[in-house]
Specification:
Structural class: alpha+beta
Number of strands: 9
Shape: elongated
Helix content: 25-40%
Largest sheet: 6 strands, antiparallel
Number of helices: 6
Length: 204
């Protein structure tokens, strides 16, 4: 393996170079130094190390002020994924992360059709996660679509699920005596917990 024996920070920087060359075709010392908070001297050393591991993948062009992908380039340290790259664009569009966090370089013009805004209370999500980890039932207020007013109920969540629009907690319902999907955005006021009686393995 080409990265065996490297420090974690060095490994991540070399992977950054590999991905930038794959997606953008060019990367320079300033980008590497700015992204990882290292000196230009360290960035130069990283490019030297990269070319030792992946000779022929890039050449330095003064006109481009950086290292440019060659026609014979092959990713050596990463496995580029289209789904991941496009997911980063979506996260940027939704204001969840910025370009610096994703590691994207040349961001193309793009737009994303916003989905329905469904805010999830962090305290509710934390309660659901605590209940899953501890195999507990948790008392919540839930707004069902079949009832006009929200009501208190006990659920024993054991997994999360995302249908492309909404996050659900898959849980055993004490009231209904069966496993159901509960939309997390419809939950509020997480309360006390108690040991769960239902076995998640029984959820078919």
């Amino acid at each position: 393996m080409p990265l065996v024996g490297l420090r974690w920070g060095t490994e991540k920087r070399l992977e950054f170079i590999d991905l930038r060359l794959f997606w953008d075709g060019v990367v320079n010392r300033q980008e590497l130094a700015g992204t990882f908070g290292i000196s230009l001297q360290q960035a130069s050393a990283d490019f030297t190390r990269y070319l030792e591991i992946a000779p022929g993948n890039a050449v330095y062009y003064r006109a481009a002020n950086g290292y440019v992908r060659t026609e014979s380039f092959q990713p050596r340290l990463t496995t580029p994924e289209s789904a991941r790259h496009l997911a980063h664009l979506r996260l940027m569009a939704e204001g969840i992360v910025d370009a610096g966090f994703t590691g994207l370089g040349q961001v193309p013009p793009f737009d994303v059709v916003p989905g329905p805004a469904r805010q999830i209370d962090p305290l509710v999500l934390r309660g659901i996660l605590d209940a899953i980890r501890g195999q507990q039932e948790i008392e919540i207020t839930y707004q069902s679509m079949s009832r006009p007013e929200p009501d208190r109920r006990w659920i024993a969540p054991h997994a999360l699920a995302f249908d492309g629009f909404r996050w659900h907690a898959r849980a055993s319902s004490s009231r209904d005596g069966r496993f159901k999907d509960f939309v997390i955005a419809r939950m509020s006021d997480p309360g006390t917990m108690r040991p769960a009686a239902a076995d998640p393995a029984a959820d078919e």
